[in-house]
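Researcher: Structure for this, please.
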Amino acid sequence: MSTCPSASAYRVAWICALSIEYVAACELLDETYSTPRLTSATDNNIYICGRIGEIKVVVVCLPKGLYGTISTAMMAVDLIHSFPCLSFGLLVGTAGGAPSRKHDIRLGDVVVSMPTDRFGGVVHYTAGKMIQDQPFAASCSYLNKPPQVLMTAVQRLEVSYARHGNGLFDTVTKMMGKNARLRSTYIGSLPKPENLYQSSHVHPPRETDSSGCAFSCGLKPEITVKRPWRDIRNPHIHHGLVASADRLIKDATFRDNMAEKYDVLCFEMEAAGLVNVLPSLVIRGISNYADTHKNDEWQAFAAAIASAYAKDLLKLVPPNAVEPTNPNTRASDQAPKTRFEKGACPCSSKDTSRG
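Model: Predicted structure, token format:
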């Protein structure tokens, strides 16, 4: 481990919500440094410092047991006060996919947040109304889009993958092959073949049936969605909207309604608390289908694939593109100066407290 001079040397934050995502990120650093002394006594974030190529990166994870948009916003404020010269962040981890006729999203694929004509890449959908016998009517907020330098890198990477293939599976295999301790977790036994169930088919309650879907639900053609075979070693990359809120989605009907109405590609719980505090790109490996059949079998693999994509992306960002051009544009100068109280998330002017 090398010594890095100060916190002001870091330009990019790699942000994770779960330990399994954090470990995958740390394994992909080209070099690690000792963590600089932090100036904030209230900063409880977990940091690993290092570099990818020529870019200094700080990898940060939410403290164990914390999750959701408000915790993420608080984490981001501490992050950019402790590392005052950050240019942008990458929020990297797992999410529940929203497959549709338009988007053939599979487990192990990667979703990258990109703006549309209506939204900036992340849809904050917590607010809304419930009417009896009608689907949930979400009220969606517009959040900041990713920095231009990252959108340019996404496009460059898309072209590179189209010409040469993405090689993400090989990156993960090589990465974990160097660490026998982690090999069994991430690639030792690859996830079982994935199945997408019809939205109308609900998994038995976990308290009455803890067996896997193949046993408790079966694989009859009438309850599964027929899709062509796809090699797990060829994950696809999808660009579009990420839905974010303080709720874990295990509802295929709601998933399908959001996909149809807003064209969202996946669901997660952190992005809406981050992108208006620190300019960021969201990168999510698909580990479930946001339905009642959700389990953790694909979580480690999906986290590793998303991390491999994030590293490929950073390698296409010119080092001079992350240098602050004006001290007044640093993330720390734009950040709120105080920690947020519960329910006072900066991601929206709407109330985001749990109901």
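Researcher: Any notable elements?
Model: The first strand starts at residue 12 and ends at 16. The longest helix spans residues 148-164.
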